[in-house]
Amino acid sequence: MRPRVLWKFATVLMISRLRSIRQSVVTNALSGRPVLVLLIGLAIFIAGALAGLAASVLFVSASRSFVSIQEVALSVAAAIPFFLVSFYFLTGLLWEVNASSEAESTDAVNWLPISAGEYVAASSLSTAYTYSPFLFGALGFALPILFYASGPLAFLALLLAAVVSCGIGAVSVEILRSALSQASSSFNRLGGKTTVVLRLVAVSLVIILTQALFSGFLLFRILSLAGSGSNLIPILWLSLSVTSLLSGDILGFLLYLTLGVGFLALLGFIALFLRGRYWVLAPSSLQLSSYGSITVPGKLGIFRMKPISAALLRYEFRSATRRRETTRLIVLPVLIPLIMILPLLFATASPFPSSTRTSGPPPTAILGFSFFATLILFGIGLGTVVLGMSSMGREGKRIWNLCVLPITAKELARTKILFTFLIALIGLVIGGVVASFFGGLSTALFVYFAAGFGLLLAESGLGLAVGARYADFAEGPRPRFVTVAGAIIGSFAGMLVMGTVLAPILVSLILSFVFGNQSFSLIAPVLSTVVGVSIGWAGYKLSIGPIGQILSELPA
Amino acid sequence: MFFYRSKAEESQEWMGAVSETSSVELRLKVFHLSKSYGYIPALSDVTLDVGAGEVRGLLGPNGSGKSTLMKIAVGLLRPTSGSVRVLGVDVEQDPMTVKKIVGYVPESPRLYEFLTATEYLDFIGDVRGLGLDEKKSRIKRFIDSLDLEGKEGYLISSYSQGMKQKVAIMGALLHKPRFLVLDEPLNGLDPKSARVVKELLHELAREGVSTIFSTHVLEIAQAICDRVTILQNGQIIAEGTPDELRQKAGLPGSGLEDVFMKLTGTSGVEEIVRALVR
Q1: 3-state secondary structure of A9
Q2: N or C: which end of chain B has fewer CB within 10 A?
Q3: Record: contact A291-B74, CB cut-off 8 A
Q4: Looking at the complex, does the CB of residue A193 fall below 8 Å from at least one CB of chain B?
């Protein structure tokens, strides 16, 4: 292994990752300096230390009635190594899921004289260093707490454990990268529809897993397991090493630290083996059944659409289900409501000590259909506006194909809105089932579907209006599809639209609860639908101009 | 020719907008065209005519404005000033009609890589309004003729550069356009397919289809083009048949490469090579 090559290659990988973020505030000159990450890390370290100091003061002053600083130190020391491993791994996982298959930045290594070992080491180093501000932040927060509770030695032990944790997380990403490379080739051999379904399921699971791990509830459960003798879980060994030291068990500290380092070495060996074996990414050579039949113009199943609209809609579905970077977007309207409900599901099996748990039925049982339906509608609305905003940007550099064809802005806008709406409609139906399952079947189901229908149309139209005006056609390892300004405006406008569409329902609920007046409850869903359709129509109208602009002047 | 039917048959099928303009002799009229990207000029006061059945070669060093001119001609970019008319239709005023009658292959075609070749051509055919039978038969003929038979069911992402280029060419020709805009269309093609495309352009020209065609391979320009326009720094520096250009450069009997070098003022190649070898 050549250290100079390793260092250079790690720097290049890190710069490529930083520049792919494409934040206009980070110029190329700045993002080309690795020291920038260190400086950001130091700033975050200081901020973290100040936060930790404030927390220490708070816990020390409140220790008599609440919890001792030693207990807090123990929790922080246990949580940080586990958090870092999870964070690095999941960041890498999301990166891989989102990465554009056409923008793999690793091509050059296939013809440069770089060994598998150098690649794995450089890539791990780049991952670890790129996200090191999180390490700095965590260590900064822990510094005053550990210093106060147990002295400098405890902090040094945490530092060691945290660095090894970052290594474990970064090397795990390398294993994942090779495994996914092999898996995607295997997926592709399976055939068209199977691939699509497997990819959708895989992406959904990844997102749910991410949410579950970062929900806090699961973290508490795992950490409580650590206290009950789960010392066979490798990713907990480094946490256990620090907690052992804090408990005065030097031997335990050394044992778990050695095990942690050994685990890192084992992962490194596996990563090296997999990288060596699956060095070159095989291009996807998926052969679809019936090699993509020639379709009857003007028909799309039961819809009997115009030829251009049918062709565009068919293309949208194929694009969304076959492109790795867009698959995550189309599952959003279905997943966001599930993700929002997830913490409540964990809450039914509370991780908190029994003394603090309230007696009675689990939370989901007493909340009822209306609560879940509202939560789900909120989630679907959010997912729909995000999907809608990506409508134009996800064309990327292929947009010329549409620009050169005789397609009007109106036709394109209608198809984009219809596609977003249809995808979101699946989420609405699943959401209805989920709400009924957890909250019990209710006559409010009709209200849910009526309001949902209007909401989805409104958000689809709004999403396209924003997405067309603020489209981001740049392609990189992680395409963004909409500019940062667009994303912010769209999210806020999406919330506003949600409030507006659901306002009649909320008013009717208030009227029936406060005054017992039910007369408005029948008109409210109809009003919501009308408001939603109107906003959707306005969004459609507003999007025609920017789409026409894109079709007549190829974006740079 | 296998890709096209007789003119009489075609004239029956032409769209209304096209039939109005089919009698126009000048297929492309570029009039005092300028285009700037911000403050950077790409084209300056370019005037150019292409007649019916003419194959016009666009030559020029990298960054001379060839691709910009072609993009404006197909309605992908708006001119800063001046105008472009394709078959009598002003591109800026009525881009939709122009898009219906033009076939275009860009310099580096980014196709829908998540579709198969068949699906991509099916999509193009539907948007261009082809009927089922016509679409089927033309897609099959194209796939057979350009040696993609047996590979049409694979995703375009798995294709080589040359195979992608073939799909882009098929997409441009599928609707029997009366005017072709081809930006380095032979890039990456194998010799047989390149020959097919060259012969095809000749045949189409005989049937009245006009083409503007950019290339850096001067032998190809010499073999295919009736007339050649040389662009440099966004301006036309020479125009005419290959023989006229030789005369203009004072190099009768020379190859087009020498003519190009002289007209574009390219010199010192030997010194550059010596410096590179050193």
Answers
A1: helix
A2: C
A3: no
A4: no
